[in-house]
Task: structure prediction
Amino acid sequence: MRDMTAEQVDARLSGVARLAAEVGVDAVLVTPGPDMRYLTGYDAVPLERLTCLIVTDGGGAHLVVPRLELLAAEASPAGHLPMHPWTETDDPYDLVASLLPDASVVALDNHMWAEKVLRLRRAMPDSVQTLAGDLLDRMRIVKTPDERDALARAGEAIDRVHAQVASLLRPGRTEREVAANIADLIIAEGHVRVDFVIVASGPNGASPHHEVSDRVLERGDAVVVDIGGTMPDGYRSDCTRTYALGDPGTDFLSRYAVLQRAQEAAVSAVRPGLTCAAVDSTARDLLAAEGLGDLFLHRTGHGIGLETHEAPYIVQGNDLPLEVGMAFSVEPGFYLEGRFGARIEDIVIVDHDGARVLNRQTRDLVIV
Ligand code: ZN
Ligand code: ZN
Result:
């Protein structure tokens, strides 16, 4: 994806301003992180020195930046915004307050450091602080065509990694050794950062978020490999496949067949208008009907974009209807303590007539 243009930045900032006005927020304050990158294209590093984007409900936008970050900010897609540099002896929180003399409600990005939240509160004692997450999610939850393509490229990159995983799995190697090879491949295939590598073999597979250990792979193990990274444009990949070293046994194989059907059914159910909860139910009911309901320990999926976990969450109780452009994972699994686990995960994007599936590697159990 190309860098955002000034017009795109302005369009996103006007969008935030409009939503802020709608919900009675006078200003939205955003520190470095995915929200700032989404709104301005500026991929600032979160540091102790305050960098803060201010968007007012009237549509004004300002960037408060440490003097030593000024050149980087100016060179970014946010370079056309009014800049307010501060030097080492200035108080940047007072600077923010001086730009918002009349703000009674300020919304802060959900990931702002507590230190910054409290210092802003001290500098603006008459303003009520609230979270900007809901407001920003309303924009970020529906991906633009550019963002959809970026996620598709991330999907292709992680697929190329999975295509090489089977060759790394051999009895006698440890999970940690395999994971180190996978991390190298995640970078080699086009990501700029490894976000996570889960290699959960044998009984470790029963812990959904087991990462790696020094356990030695054995013949007969099922191995859950859940991996993801960040592409140069900031968009993320996340894909799980389950492998087996030789024959994992009929107890495993019969359950895996059910899981594969449940995952496929949930993906096939995706369409505009269906609720997030209904996608979860599709997978969950099918697993429950085969006696695996209690072994499916987590929600069916999570949104993905500039963060690996973001809205929408595919979970019971979330009655949000799907819209064209929403992107999320479909990743049911089963986890049998002391024995084994399995998960199948694809990223999908809601399209007019169903799901656009971004991961293409086989969902069959890969026996090596
Ligand atoms: Zn995953
Ligand atoms: Zn996931």
